[in-house]
Structures are given as C-alpha cells and as structure tokens.
Backbone:
C-alpha cells in the first residue's frame, strides 16, 4: 500500500508534452433525452496536457459530457472533434475511460489487463503483453492478486485495476468519472497517485469529481458544469479563490442545488 | 407388489451385470443426444448472441419464432421431420428415416430453440453490462461477441446442460423418425415405452433408473457449475 508520505504535491512536476490527438474540441454540443436538454449547446476546447477537473452538482450532465466526448453516445446536435476531425479508430484507441462503477470482466485480475492490452493499439504480441501486465500490476500494487477473480476484489482494488487497465493502453487522453466516489482515504490516495503519475507522463486527464479537495490536489484547471453548460472555467487556484460565477460560488459554499 | 419388487431386483441385476443390450441402448442414447446438443449449440449460441447484441431487420420476428419453437411438442416435430424424410418427402433421397442421424436432427430441432433463447438472455444481460466498456476499448463487433460468449461461459454451459436434459428425456420425436429398431435406433426412452407395453418391466425399469441417474447427474453438474461461477464471481 502506498503510504502517501512520498506524495508531496501531485502537481509539482510539469505535465508531459502535448499529445498528438489534441486539441479536443466540442462545438455546440447538445444532448437531449426524454424531452430534456441535458447538455445545452456546449462548446469547449482542451488544448494542453495536464489535468482538467469537471465539477458541478448532481445531474449537471458531467457523466453525459464525458460519454459524449469519448464517443460512447451520439450528440443530438453539435460535434466532437479531435485535431479538427471526427474520431476514427486510431483516435479512439488513444483514449481511455474509467467509469464510476468499474466494469471488470469475468476474468482474473491479470486477465483483465491482458484483455485490455491485446485489444489495445499495439495489439497482441504475446511476450510484451505478459511483461506489460506484470509492470502494470506492480504499479497498481495488485501483483499479489494477479490470479484472483477481478470481481472479488475490494472496491479500492477494483478501481485501481480499472485505472491500471485503462492506463496500460497508453491513452493520450484519459476520461475519469468519479474514480474515488465510494473509496476510503487510503484507497483514494492510491488512485490519486496513479492519476498524478499519468498526468506527469503526459496523459491528458479529464476528471469528473465530487471531491473538491481532490480537484485542488490534482487539477491544473477547473470547469464548473451546471445544467448542461460550462458556467465557469479557470486555473485551479484562481477558481477556488474567486470563482467569478454566482452558481460556482454557491456550489463551493455548498449552497447550490440542481 | 411381488412383480414390482422382482422387477426392481432384475433391473439392478441388469445394470450391475453390464448387460450388453442395455449398454448398447444407453451408449446410443448418449451419442444421439450429445451430438444433437452439439449441433443445437452450434446453431443456438450464435443465433442467441446475435439477437441479443445486434439490431437487424427481422430480429423481432426471429425472437418470436425462437420463443414459439421452444414450446414445440416433440411429436409434432417428429411428424414434421417424418414427412420431410419419408420416401415421398423432399429429403427422401437422403434415406435418413429410421437412422440415428434422423434422431439427431429431431433432437437438434427441439433443443436449438432452447439454447438460442436462453443464450439470448445470458448474453443480453452481459451485453448491457459490458457494452460501454468494450466500446471504450474500441473492441470490434465480432470480438465483442466472442468476449460475451467467453465471459458468459459458465451460464452457457448450464444452458447446454439444460438442452441435454431435454434431449435425453425426449421420446415423441425420436420414436417417430427413429422407428425404435432393435440394435439400430433404440434409445432409452423409446425402449422404455416399448418394453413397458410388452410387459418386460425389468429392462424398462433398468433404463428408467439410468435415465433418472443421468438427470440427477445433469442437475448436479448445473448446481456445481453455478457454485463454481458464484465463488469466482463469474456468474
Ligand atoms: N439516457 C437518459 N435519458 C434521460 N435522462 C438522462 C439520461 N442519461 C442521463 N439523464 C439525466 O441527465 C442528467 C445528467 O446526468 P449525468 O450526466 O449522469 O449527471 P452527473 O453530472 O451527476 O454525472 C440527469 O438528470 C440524468 O437523470
Ligand atoms: Mg455522474
């Protein structure tokens, strides 16, 4: 278990170089369901590497926005562009997402990693898959559980595996939907350490979180989402000292309800 | 009552002495039903998985047809296949009537819809859970089908066992297309029917005991598969 003593500041090192598939751009993105406009004419651009945290009240549309950007659902209007073009197979293979409730395959811990690597962008070279699996299990502190059925792991271990599995695919852009939502502080710390490493290695991380402390610890910038719109966006320190938006200020003060 | 216990005694003697006729009938039964289940799985697994995962024209009709065929009365399947295979029928030239092959076809027709319908349920449940993750991995459609079938393997094995249970216990269809010919197409169920009507209760009972034993073994396998899967959280 990482004891956390060596984590000084997860943002201490500068993020890695800008990735090839960036910029990621949403243009006039709209998503409607059941007669409601859940994502409302949203435009934004992610140009730099580093970590962008998306915060906002329950039901603001954070998860929907991640799914739209990642291409899991089709927008009702607008478009998502990567380097000015729609996502193709190459671009899709350079992204990864970890869901709020990790979806682990009915296989062993190592089997889950093996699957992700075999279907990753470097395909199925047997020996290199084997060594990558071991390297990632070590990194996620799961090596001792390699042969355990993945779905028998604890919540924290499951989330670590889901994150390691996503990272093993060497994504340039990583979407994380509340990866520590139901975890205790120790498990949260282990996840944050992995996220911080990914950011330091140059992965663009787009993190949805409810944990404002986490946003402060990890994020280079904050986006405040409310009713399907980005109402505020600012570098982390600036956002928390002066949100410049009434709803964002109310949210930080714990007064904003959806 | 005297007859009854005497018949039981004789039946056990037959089983324990390894009677050759008995063994032949049991082996043919197993051979026919296992082959039928194999074919039913070859048809039912892809069909069930496809209707669970893909949207295509005619999918709704196919599902209705599959569900309707699940409840087909075996004698009607036997009759239908008899008409197809008899000399005057379209498949008459194949000369399959009254052969084990005809019985295999009959049981396959009976079991395939069961395998397909149950597979559809298993795969649909797994699909709804895995879909976004597999698409996030950018796994192709066919690779996704393979993944779902593999990860559903324990449930699908119980599906196959359920199909085998239906096949081995079935009598109506195989008696019509097999003809119950001694040493050729006599399986456990048809022999029980025949021998009972002839008053040869010992042989009928011996086969009945074995049939029940097989049913118990199938159920025990299903239960132990479920337990294994549950222990590994694979169900
Ligand atoms: N497929 C859907 N159909 C109708 N409403 C939906 C659908 N998906 C999400 N919603 C609604 O959209 C809103 C935003 O959802 P979500 O993105 O999950 O919010 P959050 O910001 O909490 O992650 C919620 O009110 C949710 O109930
Ligand atoms: Mg959410």
Residues:
């Amino acid at each position: 278990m990482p004891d956390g003593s060596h984590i000084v500041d997860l943002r201490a090192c500068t993020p890695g170089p800008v990735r090839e598939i960036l910029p990621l751009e949403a243009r006039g993105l709209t998503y409607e369901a059941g007669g409601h406009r859940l994502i409302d004419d949203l435009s934004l651009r992610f140009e730099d590497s580093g970590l962008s945290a998306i915060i906002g009240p329950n039901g603001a549309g954070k998860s929907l926005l991640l799914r739209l950007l990642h291409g899991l659902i089709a927008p009702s209007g607008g478009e998502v562009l990567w380097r000015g073009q729609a996502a193709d197979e190459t671009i899709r293979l350079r992204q990864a997402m970890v869901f709020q409730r990790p979806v682990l395959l009915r296989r062993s811990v190592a089997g889950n990693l093996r699957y992700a690597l075999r279907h990753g962008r470097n395909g199925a070279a047997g020996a290199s898959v084997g060594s990558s699996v071991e390297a990632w299990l070590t990194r996620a502190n799961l090596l001792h559980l390699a042969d355990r059925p993945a779905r028998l792991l604890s919540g924290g271990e499951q989330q670590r595996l889901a994150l390691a599995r996503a990272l093993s695919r060497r994504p340039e852009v990583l979407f994380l939907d509340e990866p520590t939502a139901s975890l205790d502080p120790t498990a949260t710390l282990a996840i944050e350490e992995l996220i911080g490493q990914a950011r330091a290695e140059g992965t663009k991380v787009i993190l949805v979180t409810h944990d404002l402390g986490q946003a402060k610890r990890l994020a280079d910038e904050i986006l405040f989402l409310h009713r399907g719109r980005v109402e505020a966006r600012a570098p982390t320190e600036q956002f928390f000292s002066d949100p410049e938006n009434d709803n964002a200020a109310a949210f930080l003060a714990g007064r904003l309800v959806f | 009552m005297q007859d009854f216990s005497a018949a039981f005694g004789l039946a056990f003697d037959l089983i324990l002495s390894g009677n050759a006729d008995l063994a032949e009938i049991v082996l043919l039964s197993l051979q026919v039903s296992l082959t039928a289940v194999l074919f039913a799985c070859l048809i039912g697994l892809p069909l069930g998985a496809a209707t669970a995962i893909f949207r295509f024209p005619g999918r709704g009709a196919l599902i209705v047809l599959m569900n309707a065929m699940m409840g087909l009365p075996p004698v009607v399947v036997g009759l239908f296949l008899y008409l197809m295979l008899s000399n005057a029928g379209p498949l008459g030239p194949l000369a399959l009537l009254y052969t084990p092959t005809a019985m295999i076809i009959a049981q396959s027709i009976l079991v395939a819809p069961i395998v397909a319908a149950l597979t559809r349920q298993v795969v649909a449940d797994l699909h709804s859970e895995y879909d976004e993750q597999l698409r996030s991995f950018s796994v192709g459609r066919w690779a996704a089908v393979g993944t779902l079938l593999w990860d559903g393997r324990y449930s699908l094995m119980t599906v196959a066992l359920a199909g085998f249970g239906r096949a081995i216990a079935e009598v109506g269809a195989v008696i019509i297309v097999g003809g119950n010919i001694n040493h050729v197409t006599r399986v456990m169920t048809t022999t029980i029917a025949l021998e009972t009507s002839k008053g040869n209760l010992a042989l009928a009972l011996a086969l009945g005991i074995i049939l029940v034993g097989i049913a118990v073994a199938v159920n025990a396998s299903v239960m132990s598969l479920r337990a294994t899967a549950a222990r590994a959280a694979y169900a």
